[in-house]
Amino acid sequence: MSAKLPPHLTTKMNGPPKFEVGLKPIAIENWLFPDDQNHWLEGKGKLLSLKTDDVYASLGDTEEIQAELAQLVCAAANQEITNGEPLLIGASRLVSDDLIIMDKRDGVWTLVAATLCAPTFFNAQYAIGKSLSLLHDPIPSGDFDLSGRIARVFDNFAPDMVLERFNWTVQWCDERYTPNGAKLREAAQNAQLNEAPNMLYERVERQTIRKLPKTGAVVFTIRIRLSKLSDLLQNKDEYIAFENAWKNAPQNVREYKKWATLERHVTHLLEIMR
Question: 73 with 43: CB under 8 angstroms?
Answer without folding.
Answer: no
